[in-house]
Queue: 2 jobs
Job 1
Amino acid sequence: MMELQQSLDRLKERIEGGMPSEFVGIMHQATRDLEASGIGDGILKARDKAPSFKLPNQKGELISSEEILAKGPLVITFYRGVWCPYCNTDLAYLKRYKEELDAKGATLFSISPQTQENNQQIVDGQKLNYDLLSDKGNAVAESFGLRWEMVDPLKSLYANKFRISLPDYNGEDSWTLPVPARFIIGQDGVIKYAEYSIDYTKRPNPDVLVSKLESIKN
């Protein structure tokens, strides 16, 4: 089976290869600017206390992190939205490891700022076997240190050239997104594993989540 990063590299080559170099330059510079902003310093790490949350899934059912943790570890991933092919690829790879995560007693959720309807679209389209949670305004993402605001020229590129309007997808006007990230939270509410990808085209294979769960002791 092809590793996730191999799939993402091929996807990037195909997407950016068919795009004007000016657009690619804007996207790459925005990633460099976000990295230089120091956002990584504020993202929660292993051994930090995880914020608790209650968020609706794609069906509108309210999911409580505290209730889930009473049963076992929690695996959460933050992704950008249905419009992001890299995130969709990531979600599809996560699906392959759901049974192994279940076998370790863990519950998997993915979190994005988009509406429940758009989350349902991904669940249906990719036949996902786990729930997607709606984090309006990236409030929970912010509590994990992941929230950032898209500004020009990237914002104009998305809105005017790509025809991707974050307010339309997310149901609010902030033009904010989460840095893609994954966390394993132990039943004691402490983060046991954390990783993030400021460069959204770079993500570790999900099998690392299975191996990390094996070493967790609450």
Job 2
Amino acid sequence: MPFLDLPEVRLFYVDHPPADPTRTGALATPTVLLHGLWSNAEAWIHQLPHFRARCRTIAVDLRGHGRSGLADAYSTDRYAADVAALIERLATGPVVLIGASMGASVTSLLAARRPDLVHAVVSVDPDYAGADDDRARMRALADALDGPDAEATALDIVDRLVEGPDTPPHVDEWQRLAVLRLSPETRARTWRQNAFSPGGLRFRHEADAVLRERSQPVLALHRDPERLRADERSFAHPASRAILVSGAGHCLHQEIPEYVNAEIDRWLATLSLSSGDVSSRDAFGEER
């Protein structure tokens, strides 16, 4: 199985070549898929065969998740640095980043810091730019995830997020099993650091500046109208688009995969995926 050994952590990933690069609609630009909090690369089971049919497709277990190793730091910038290292190691050239929930925060931060690595961004019900007055509730949940009823708290969080009016039961079951694979300590630390580490995008005050730095085209699928409006205000590229999705739970890519895949396909077809400009500085700290 493919792993990337970094100084802080070992990452698991899958890397699929395009099944038929000559087919109509084939993309020269690779796609990288980033899952959400407490999930893993298997969350993309409906997207992996779809995109690998037309382009090189990569999915990674972020640090602390799935088959990847544990670490001390689980902040958004550490996730983004890991993905940057993976893209560079695989020598893909600039990619289309597709992220769900927390993975969308990672894609947005990476797009802002490393425009040389990112052609375009797709955010699937992103967790960024939440209401600033939600901090107290998020801290209370973080404390509960460290408490005696940690497992029940985690499962309740998942149930409330996943369940929409028409959510199939198997989506909730899949997410519950993914959560139960993680230790209580990992669930608590990833939750707290994702929400409250410096540089995080969970709340609107911190997120706005980073989102405005994305120079690439962005496709954002939202359930929350307020988050959608915050995303739209940040768009810098004329091809960017935000879509409000109703009647579904948080895991849009698992619940309504045909719709999500079709919207991404339709939007990507409007873009030029030729090589973009290469920036001269690695925003994680090194000259290039």
